[in-house]
Amino acid sequence: MTIQTYATYEELSRKTADLIIESVKDKPNPLVCLASGHTPIGVFKCLVEDVKTGKLDVSNWTFIGLDEWNGMNGSTKGSCRQMMDEDLFEPLNIPEKQIVFFDGTQPNVQAQCDEVNELIHQHGGLDVMLVGIGLNGHIGMNEPGTDFDTFAHISQLAEETISVGQKYFPGETKLSTGITMGLKHFQEARLPIIMANGEKKAGIIAKVAASQPIESLPASIVHMAPQAYVMVDRAAGSLL
């Protein structure tokens, strides 16, 4: 595991984007799993800028969504897919054939998990998995207590995640379960990245850095992935 600290969110975003780009530049058909939400928006802006200026070609990338709230898809304001559409897929004009994303409105969600697991297995693992980190140490929607050997699955959300998740929606929204890539996907990815910014993440980043791998702290799986990076700005890394 490598911890990198940068002075500003902007520098953090640029360096994270560069790390991703460098890792897949020689891959014929990279599988790139990205988180939605506020943390990676700066990375997305860098990717969009690089594509629009001709520095980057993502026409051979397959984008895999990290997670989705159960009962939602891209038509729901505040859903993971809707945010990814707004922040990345639409600015890049990514065709649907290059996007793999959970649809929480479909009746057989487990079948979607099985299909994604098989796709990744056939590819030999994800090339990139970029995640944020929750205040309780969750990554994706893998809450405390999630088995480290779990692949894509349906997750029961912690109360803290339900409460914090309200910030994405225009009004109070009922949340209970989610669909998420698993912790084993993170461990097996060729480039697993945890990204965090801001003072509110300093405590959990310090806790993860000092921890042994333990399932009560999902992000501590980073210690089981020697190729992993923890990328933080100065505020998020202030307690390291």
Give a structural overview:
The protein has 240 residues and is of the alpha/beta class. It is 32% helix and 17% strand. It is built from 7 helices and 10 strands. A 7-stranded parallel sheet has the order 1-10-9-6-2-3-5, sandwiched between helices. A 3-stranded antiparallel sheet has the order 4-8-7, with helices on one face. Strand 9, helix 7 and strand 10 form a beta-alpha-beta unit. Helix 1 crosses helix 2 and helix 2 packs parallel to helix 3. It is globular and about 40 Å long.
What string gives the helices and strands in order? EHEHEEHEHEEHEHEHE
**Strand order, largest beta sheet:** 1-10-9-6-2-3-5
Report the mean per-residue pLDDT as an integer: 97
Total number of helices: 7
Which structural class matches the secondary elements?
A: alpha/beta
* Relative helix content: 25-40%
Largest sheet: 7 strands, parallel
Distance between the termini: 14 Å
Counted beta strands: 10
| Proportion of residues in β-strands | 15-25%
What is the global morphology?
globular
The radius of gyration over CA amounts to 16 Å
Q: Runs with pLDDT <50, length 5+?
A: none
How would you summarize what this structure contains?
Helix 2 (41-52) packs parallel to helix 3. The protein has seven helices and ten strands.
Question: What is the topological layout?
Answer:
Blueprint: E1 2-6, H1 9-24, E2 31-34, H2 41-52, E3 62-65, E4 67-69, H3 80-92, E5 99-100, H4 109-123, E6 128-131, E7 153-156, H5 159-165, E8 177-180, H6 183-188, E9 192-196, H7 202-210, E10 229-233
Parallel strand pairs: 1-10, 2-3, 2-6, 3-5, 6-9, 9-10
Antiparallel strand pairs: 4-8, 7-8
Helix pairs in contact: 1-2, 2-3
